[in-house]
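Sanity check

After download, print the first record. It should look like this:
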Amino acid sequence: MSEQSELIEALEEARELPDGDGKIAELERIVAHADAAADVRLGFDARFALIDAYNNHTERWRMLPPFSWCLAAFDRDPSLFDDWDAEMLRWYHKWAIAALRSTPRVGLAQTQAAMDDLERRFRAQGRSLQAVYNLRCRIADHLGDEAQARQWLTRWQGARRDENSDCAGCDPSRQAELLAGWGEWEEAVRTVEPVLAGTLGCAEQPEKALTTVLVAYLRLGRYDEAAQAHVRAYRRHRHERDAFPFLAEHLRFCALSGLHERGLEILGTHLGWLDRPYDDSSAMEFAAAGALVCRLAAEAGVEMSIHRPEYGDRPATDLSVSALGAQLLATAQELAGRFDARNGSSHQSGRMAAWLAERPIDAEVTLPVDEPPDDWAMPDALPPGSRQDLVAPLRMEAIVRELEGRVDHYLLYDDGTVGVQWGKTLIQFEQLGEAKEILHARIIVERRLPADRLTEAYEFCNSWNHDRLLPKAYVHDTGEGELIIAGEVTTDLEHGVSASQLAALVNATIGPGAALADAVADLP
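Expected structure tokens:
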């Protein structure tokens, strides 16, 4: 086998590695060998994989050199590359600009130059500027130019979406984040309502949208909704390394709600992530929100010892609340100062100072139960013949038993979801709710539609939802030129469910779900 063949095989194997330092090191090794062999195509492919690895792990700014290399290689000889390469380069160009904005390690002039280059390319290719307006809006907001950011937001909201636009379910969350930052609490909540209602969705929703309006809910006096949003979103975010940018809002919610112990618990759980942050911006916000949690907890007389793990030359240490708060304050101020030095303003320091000066609301916030009560257990033994009629708490084991009688195999995901392939659709069952009492089924139709048929897809879902009770259909824009028609069925089983009732519910999901898939398949 030639060296090139070995490297190609190594690249395929590296792509399958779990995200992390090991995968990054292997891809960097392959890049070095490809460059030594002057193999442009292999160097391009390996760098594409490396960009993904940087984006999915930590330290996103490290994607900038491989992206610049790929863009230059494409410009030198476009004939070496295909349409898919060009499309992915456009997406990586957007990622690179977002990474530039989120780190002070690169000058502002380079960020603006990359932004101008993206707009030039989109204009030359006759593409929508919706994604450009999105990025320009967020850069202006980062620099503290609210007036300019509002102008870009208006253009962003009014521009035509295309295959280069961010996910239709995530755009409202990003817009709501801006609005909340400007103190427009009601408008922020209104902006994410289509996501929370399920009209728009994606793999990160609704948890991402819920997090963006946590403080807005508090400021509007909607305390129960804020508590429910926090519990549901953090239930997911606490397990996902790439959810680090959302943790600052969870910490602020706890601080402002007077939930000091909860805030310190979350802070201690994720403190190690601060040493390898997703980006510098999220590290700054996490540190500032953590410092706020510590200050308000200390003022309330809360005494706890919080473990900070070792990192580099720093030994592991057990810190008091005040001592940890002082360390986090220093980190937040140092990062804000670096951003301001890069940006030529004092906006980030002022924004973090405003966070640190916040006071708790004058109301009691009670969190809903996050785990099933201990007494919700299936009895060990049942009288013969009675299992079908026994009403018991919903359990994933019972859902699996129902599926085993219908399919040859099923998939159990790490998050507890179970999935089955049924004809032209994938159906996933999961438990939601404070006590896992809600049976939620998601139907993902196999057929994809091109992004330019978005209006038609919305019309199809509206018609389906008007004529059919189940499932509730909606459109998911992947942001990669494709639309997914999906459906969902949600049943509240707070008072339990018998085996016969569960069988009927599973049937009521599979049958209509298959019908939805057939209807989508019949579209022209």
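If your output differs, re-run the checksum step. Summary of this record's structure: The radius of gyration is 25 Å.
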